[in-house]
């Protein structure tokens, strides 16, 4: 792959998205502008997902290398798995090692540090469950906030 006019590696999703490594991305998934998708540690994104503008998905961390003054010389990596039909809101961050189940919703600005069960709505920093996706009528999905 080459580099586009923005100086970012070319990708089939958005010219202003930065996709690193070789993530597996399912059919019909949309990735917005300014999203950072890090596949360097292993990343699978299911079919029909939306990754909103500014969202970051990380499969690596250099925190321990940094705080040790580089005495710990490794960059830690752990795969991320995102199920089918998952919505990731604007400016959300998904940390390495996390699994997000099918049909889950990650709210805008959420920081996901732990696994998210299927059909769960999470928000906040750190992200916590705030509702359940209800698909009794697929034409009119709702959120049950009685969690």
TrEMBL record:
Molecular function GO terms recorded: acyltransferase activity
rRNA-binding is among the record's keywords: no
Domain of life: Bacteria
UniProt keyword Repeat present: yes
Entry keyword set: Acyltransferase, Repeat, Transferase
InterPro entries per UniProt: Hexapep, Hexapep_transf_CS, Trans_hexapeptide_repeat, Trimer_LpxA-like_sf
Pfam families assigned to the protein according to its UniProt record, in alphabetical order: Hexapep_2 (PF14602)
Gene3D superfamilies named in the record: Hexapeptide repeat proteins
Name the UniProt record assigns to this protein: Acyltransferase
């Amino acid at each position: 792959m080459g580099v586009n006019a923005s100086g970012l590696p070319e990708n089939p999703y958005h010219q202003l998205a930065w996709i690193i490594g070789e993530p597996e991305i399912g059919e019909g998934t949309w990735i917005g502008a300014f999203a950072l998708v890090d596949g360097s540690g292993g990343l699978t994104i299911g079919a029909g997902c939306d990754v909103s503008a500014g969202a970051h998905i990380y499969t690596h961390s250099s925190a321990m290398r940094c705080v040790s003054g580089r005495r710990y010389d490794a960059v830690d990596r752990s795969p991320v798995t995102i199920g089918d039909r998952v919505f990731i809101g604007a400016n959300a961050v998904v940390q390495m090692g996390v699994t997000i189940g099918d049909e889950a919703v990650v709210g805008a600005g959420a920081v996901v540090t732990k696994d998210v069960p299927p059909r769960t709505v999470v928000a906040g920093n750190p992200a916590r469950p705030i509702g359940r996706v209800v698909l009794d009528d697929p034409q009119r999905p709702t959120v049950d906030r009685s969690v």
